[in-house]
Amino acid sequence: MTERRRERPDDYFADWKEREALAEGMIPLIGKLYRTNNVKTYIYGKSLANLSVLDIMQAHRFVRQVEQNELSEFETFPVIQALATLDLGTAHIDAGRIAVAYEETGKPAGKSVEEFVRSQVAGLIGVSKEPVRPARDVVLYGFGRIGRLVARLLIEKAGGGDNLRLKAVVVRHGGAENDLVKRVSLLRRDSVHGPFNGTIRVDEDRQSFVANGVEVKVIYANSPAEVDYTKYGINDAILVDNTGKWRDTEGLSVHLGCPGISKVILTAPGKGDMKNIVHGVNSHEILPTDTIISAASCTTNAIAPPLKVLDDKFGVEGGHVETVHSYTNDQNLIDNYHKGDRRGRSAPLNMVISETGAAKAVGKVLPQLLGKLSGNAIRVPTPNVSLAILKLNLKTETTVEELNEFMRRVALHSPLRKQIDYSNSPEVVSSDFVGSRHACVFDSEATIVNGKSAVLYCWYDNEFGYSCQVHRILEQMAGVNYAVYPQD
Questions:
Q1: SS3 454
Q2: Helices (H), 208-274
Q3: Of the four, 112, 156, 157, 448, which is 20 to 30 A from 466 by CA?
Q4: Where would one find the signal peptide in this protein (predicted)?
Q5: Is the backbone of residue 44 left (phi > 0), alpha (psi -120 to 50) or beta?
């Protein structure tokens, strides 16, 4: 990318108001593209759908921070405006990348924005093929932290309703008369992730809730075998098991015996010969014939993408992974008996040395690293966001500058840009990454390199970032395959 700098405005506030007006003007155009054409627009991988004016402006600011390029609303608004006039098929379109490409090649060649945009999405004009027909039913078995976040994602991404449709959640009855209301209230308000973005109503007569127009049945059952999903109008559904109760193929196969269920995704590391998938890294291994898939763990999802690209570029001889992990609900709030070592001590008051199988599990995702990594974990008194510290012995010598620049380009321009994000701020702390949709965020300011020895720091929202990875696997298993523009 060519480095470009905007001239300093004479009046910062006047410049802000102009850009604010352009961002405001984008919103109905972005909405039209999304709801009419099922076209989702992005700025360097950051989705613009359902964003506020300030959120759109912040997306532009991110590019200015890490790409050394003064991309602004002045460049992207004409691109989005041009896209909105075209008859486009379903796709994900990065308006920011098209805008930059126009400034670098289109404008010097004398093309208008409209002409250039049309050339960039030529293969999409007049295409009516949808990613999935009909909509694929989805069931969430378990409605805890991950279940509720996956529900938020499914509802948020419902679009025109023709891709994935959340039809039901399955839970045990908690015993309270207002059990349904209480469970829905946990979806509506979240102490870490904030309020639900939209409206939710409870329909107790139909034993369901309606979120942004999506009706979701709440099914009470003590075991999978009790449920006939076809009685609820659910067929050929993908079930996401968030309970972690069954971790092997035999246990999870019980779901497949239920009428209406055809595939299962486990949101925990799978045991035995079950495929453990980190989307973007080994998701090419998912076959149409696969019926049970594990989405691995949040930590495996965080470390596998950077380990893959670093091994491809520099070679990884071996190393150690230390995860500084937020406490989880298997720990005690106050000191009390726990069958696990150390976990009986109060989670909000202590750092607790624990263990992680993520370093070993990476071998299932990246076989070339099997047996090369050790790992351990420290649970700390924060409710969300964790940090993976990778101490690696590389095959090739490098420098801080070379390694950071490599990771920056991977985060912005590689096929793993949805998995790896990049930070160059010396001031960020864990709470800044709550809500990150990436599997990890590479902290360039913390990198240490000494010849072939490197220490890397990768933040990850162990709840929401992981849920986004689960959703990507869900889309792939459902056959949702978006065309991506501009094409690399």
A1: strand
A2: 249-256
A3: 448
A4: none
A5: left
Give per-residue burial for 339-356: e unless 16+ CB within 10 Å, then b. eeeebbbebeebebebeb
- 395 in Cβ contact with 316 (< 8 Å): yes
User: Tokens for 435?
Assistant: 């809500």
Which one, of 488, 482, 486, 463, lies nearest residue 152 by Cα? Answer: 463
pLDDT in tens, 333-346: 999 999 989 999 99
Token pair in block for residue 331:
């720990």
For residue 442, list its beta bridge partners. Answer: 422, 458
- Give the residue ranges of DSSP H helices in 138-262: 145-156, 179-188, 249-256
Report the distance separating Cα 52 and Cα 80, nearest Å. Answer: 16
- Which residue has tokens 């529900």? 151
- 136-141 and 91-94 as β-strands: parallel, antiparallel, unpaired? unpaired
The CA-CA-CA angle for residues 350, 356, 357, to 5°, reads 170
Q: Could you check whether the bond before residue 134 is cis, i.e. omega within 30 degrees of 0?
A: yes
CA distance 423 to 452: 23
CB atoms closer than 10 angstroms to residue 323:
27
- Give the separation between CA 278 and CA 465, rounded to whole angstroms: 12
pTM value > 0.70: yes
Bridge-based pairing state of the strands 316-326 and 386-394: antiparallel
The 10 Å CB-count burial string (b at 16+, else e) for 150-170 is bbbbbbbbbbeebbbbbbbbb
**For residue 89, what pLDDT band results from cuts at 50, 70 and 90?**
confident
In the numeric block, the tokens 């908690």 are attached to 174
The pair of structure tokens assigned to 6 is 């905007």
d(CA 98, CA 120): 7
Q: Quick one: tokens of 96?
A: 């920011």
Options 258, 298, 440, 458, the catalytic residue: 298
Alpha carbons 188 and 170: distance in angstroms, whole number: 18
Please state, in angstroms and rounded to a whole number, the distance separating the CA atoms of residues 270 and 268: 6
Query: Given pLDDT bands bounded at 50, 70 and 90, which one contains residue 429?
Result: very high
Is residue 261 a contact partner of residue 239, using CB atoms and an 8 Å limit? yes
pLDDT of residue 130: 57
Ramachandran region of residue 440, left (φ > 0), alpha (ψ -120 to 50) or beta?
beta
Q: CA-based Rg of the chain, rounded to a whole angstrom?
A: 23
Name the residue among 323, 267, 326, 296 with its Cα closest to residue 146: 267
